[in-house]
Design brief:
alpha+beta; Jelly Rolls; 39% helix; single chain; binds zinc ion; 2 domains; 12 strands; Arc Repressor Mutant, subunit A; 308 residues; 6-stranded antiparallel beta sheet
C-alpha cells in the first residue's frame, strides 16, 4: 500500500477503487442518499436519524440504533467521505454537506440492486473493480468523540452493549495504584472455520471514555487471534486464503488428539492480542486500520477482552 499523504486523486477524478471503497458500505450509501434527498446539508444528528430509519424501516428508528449510527458516521464514514472530497464534514459544528464530487459516484449508485449482489459482485461484473488506491497514512482527526454529546452517546452505546451480554469486570487492584485496571469483555459469533471479521466498532465501544494510553485487545483462545489491518472486504477474503494456504490442513501430531493442529498453527501466526494507542477513549488507529478477529476453528462464539 502506498504512503501518499492524501487521497491520490483528491483533485482529479475519483478512482474506481475509491468509488468501490465508498459504495461497498451500505451505511455510507444510505448517508449519501439521505443527503442527496435532503437539502444536501444536514447535521450529523439528523443524518443519523435518517440513516437509522432507512436501515430499520422504522420511523422514528429505535434510539439505540440511531446512536450506533451516529457513532459510526461521526467516527468512520463521514471522515472518510470528507477525505475523498465527497462531503464536507465539520467536526465542530457537526454539519455535513454534499460536494459536487458526489456526481462521480451517483452513476454507480443507480445500479445498486436492492437485494442479491453485493457491491463487490456488482463491481466485479462491471469490471470496474481494481485494487483500491489507498492512503495508509495515519490521519485520524483530532477531537474524535471528544465532545460531551459524543460521550453521552458512547455511554449509551455501552449500555446497549451491556444489554447484549457485554460484561464489565472491575478488578480491585492494589489500593495505591491511581489507575484501576479495567476490563470489558464481549463475544463474537463467527460463521465458518476460517473467518476474519472486523471488530473495530465493538472494541471502540468497549474502551472507557476516559481511557488514555493503550488498550490491549486479547482473545482467550488457542485457535483464534487478533490482528490490526485493513478491513476491505476482498482483503479479508485474501487473509483467509493466505492463512488457509500457509498451513497444511493435516499431518500434524496434535491431530491425533483433536484434529485441529492446523487451527492452532494459524492462530500462532496471528497472535492472541494487539496493544493499541488510545486517547480520551478513542482508538488512535490509522485511517485504514481496523481491529480484526481471526477465527481459525469456527464457527463458534469467541470471547474478546479489552483491557485498559
Ligand atoms: Zn486442539
Amino acid at each position: 500500500m502506498s504512503e501518499s499523504a492524501g487521497s491520490a486523486s483528491a483533485n482529479g477524478a475519483l478512482e474506481e477503487g475509491e468509488i468501490h471503497d465508498v459504495l461497498r458500505n451500505g451505511r455510507r450509501r444510505l448517508a449519501i442518499r439521505s443527503l442527496r434527498e435532503g437539502e444536501g446539508e444536514m447535521n450529523v444528528r439528523e443524518l443519523s436519524e435518517e440513516v437509522a430509519a432507512r436501515e430499520t424501516g422504522e420511523d422514528p428508528p429505535p434510539r439505540d440504533k440511531r446512536q450506533s449510527v451516529y457513532v459510526s458516521l461521526h467516527q468512520t464514514h463521514l471522515p472518510k467521505l470528507d477525505d475523498l472530497g465527497i462531503v464536507d464534514y465539520d467536526n465542530d459544528s457537526k454539519r455535513v454537506a454534499l460536494r459536487d464530487r458526489v456526481r462521480e459516484i451517483e452513476v454507480y449508485m443507480e445500479v445498486v440492486p436492492q437485494y442479491g449482489l453485493s457491491w463487490g459482485g456488482v463491481l466485479l461484473r462491471t469490471r470496474i473493480a481494481r485494487p483500491a488506491h489507498h492512503d495508509c497514512g495515519s490521519r485520524r482527526r483530532p477531537g474524535h468523540l471528544g465532545s460531551r454529546d459524543d460521550r453521552g452517546f458512547r455511554r449509551l452505546l455501552r449500555r446497549v452493549d451491556g444489554g447484549l451480554g457485554v460484561s464489565r469486570v472491575q478488578s480491585a487492584g492494589p489500593r495505591h495504584l491511581p489507575a484501576t485496571p479495567r476490563m470489558t469483555t464481549f463475544t463474537v459469533d463467527t460463521d465458518r472455520r476460517l473467518h476474519v471479521l472486523d471488530i473495530t466498532d465493538r472494541v471502540e465501544a468497549a474502551v472507557p471514555e476516559d481511557a488514555n494510553g493503550t488498550v490491549t485487545v486479547f482473545v482467550r483462545h488457542t485457535t483464534a487471534g487478533i490482528a490490526v489491518n485493513e478491513a476491505e472486504s476482498r482483503l479479508l477474503g485474501d487473509f483467509e486464503a493466505f492463512l488457509a494456504d500457509a498451513v497444511d490442513d493435516d499431518g500434524w501430531d496434535h491431530d491425533q488428539l483433536d484434529g485441529n493442529a492446523d487451527s492452532h498453527l494459524r492462530a500462532l501466526l496471528v497472535g492472541a492480542s494487539e496493544t493499541l494507542p488510545v486517547s480520551d477513549g478513542t482508538l488512535d488507529l490509522g485511517t485504514w486500520q481496523s481491529v480484526l478477529l481471526v477465527e481459525c476453528d469456527g464457527p463458534r462464539s469467541r470471547t474478546v477482552d479489552v483491557r485498559v
